[in-house]
Amino acid sequence: MLREYVxxxxxxxxxxxxxxxxxxxEQRRGFISEFEGLAIFKDPAFNILPNDKYARYQLFSCYFHxxxxxxxxxxxxxxxxxxxxxxxxxxxxxxxxxxxxKGHGVRKCDAGEVPDVATLIALMSGACIVEALIDxxxxxxxxxxQSVNTxxxxxxxxxxxxxxxxxxxxxxxxGDSVVDNVGSGGLVAAIDMDSxxxxxxxxxxxxxxxxxxxxxxxxxGTQLPSWxxxxxxxxxxxxxxxxxxxxxxxxxxxxxGWDIVEVNPAPSFVSWQTLTQEGIRPVLTExxxx
Length: 290
What we know:
This protein has 11 helices and 11 strands. By secondary structure, the protein is of the alpha+beta class.
């Protein structure tokens, strides 16, 4: 365990999740820890995306099928006027901190409780973005209606700008949560890239679930809708920013088709490697991503 930590920053938790005690030295080297992945793919040589979520939204605004606005609390009356118009159209909405990650800093807000920009900024502890709610399609809402459940679709580009589809994960919320992130208590399951069907049980922490613990909807065999169109959308979006080495696109299935929720520059490989018990490094090497 100490050797793997020194060699690749594999934490004790990851060591057990990857079942490294049962694997050969060669198999162990195929895994990439969260720390190593961040060190590689957040390096400026591979990552050109801004940290600001709203700036990322602006790069891909044509793919967002809902209203997204940024508020700083420093825009005076013009910002207040914009906010009042927004809450008139959206009595309930999602607010996110500009730099939040892993589902932290995300709140579902009611216009009556957040009547002005000053209240919004105080609630979110600083600058934030607000988004109209996604009208979630029934296929994914069935897992957990309280949260917007998503597909994390990970793509990569090599030095020639060739885009590869690496893997996809179904992420669903749990309990009272309005987010589906694993870091906020959600469940995750792997998706077969060819068919678009969920091919593993759901994972939350150390526990696996054949069915969602709240709704009893089974994971394995669930078919994601319009799978080929989602693949094409993810690849097209990455092709517009070929200098970016890695993308983690979060898509929700809405009433009018797939809608992008967030764009992430250095998505973790830990969930996929844990669910499949396969290291991602050989794939990245073969496709000249590393």
